[in-house]
Batch of 2 targets.
Target 1
Amino acid sequence: MKLTTTLLSLTPILPLALTCSDDHFTVMSIRSGSPIQYLPLTASDTYFYLGGTTSSACPSDIAAYDACPPGNQTVIGTSNYLDSAYVQEIYVAPTGALKFVEAHTTYIDPGSSTATFCYTPGTPIGHWTYSSGDVEGFMACPTEEGLYQVFANMANATVPLGDVSDCLGFDAATVAYNSSSVAAWQYD
């Protein structure tokens, strides 16, 4: 019996190109067996939290005409902006905190990261990701108020209780938000 050796030509597998969408979506955390499982992403006081209450506002002259959007959900309009009547960009501060620009301003903390978010829709569940250098994804860190504040998954983040090992990494699952109007006049 004659043994032969066959060499296979191995073609390198290239990563799939990531296509980011500009559609609107909401986010919920996925971390099985944890206190943050299925919590919604909420915007409040220029920060993001899991759970808690979305903080939004509407001017009294607009409210008088019953023209204010509900503002009770945190909706992301594109990968980098909240869905509001004002441009409110989302960014990662140098501390690692996930933040948004206060309405009527364009101020972003110096040294922040703004261009590394990507929304990939799904049927029905999609994903929202963050990456910058060696930092990938999000983590939720406990606060004194019992909420979980959202940060980029950074080992050197400056977290509310001071210990990054208390934080929980999570997947940011998304659900498409289908509405013809903005979700909030502005987020506070």
Target 2
Amino acid sequence: MITQVTNGIKISVETSFEGTFFKNYKMHYAFGYTISIENQTNASVQLITRHWDIFDALKDIETVDGEGVIGKKPVILPGKTHSYSSGCLLASPIGAMKGFYTLIELVSGETFEAEVPTFKFAAPFAMN
């Protein structure tokens, strides 16, 4: 598990290799990840946007920006954690992701970023 704390928001990531499959005559490598976002501040916050840089050993870096996570904009109370699972398809058996969430402190209305540490993807057969 990889963990990082930014501005009182602790983000932990676990990854898994889900398998391979052919699509459009190309091999794809499926990876899963579970992210836990713990609010270690004294204020309620809401996750409003996400930013990802996706690294694939066989492709250029892909950038993804969007609202919330998996269709939700969770409110995270002080001392509470929001967890979710998602996935990523790569053209190679090795890659990584990093990014950040933009959150809003609900009482003050101030926005801030919480960094998501770089987490790596590696199919077991690709590692020595």
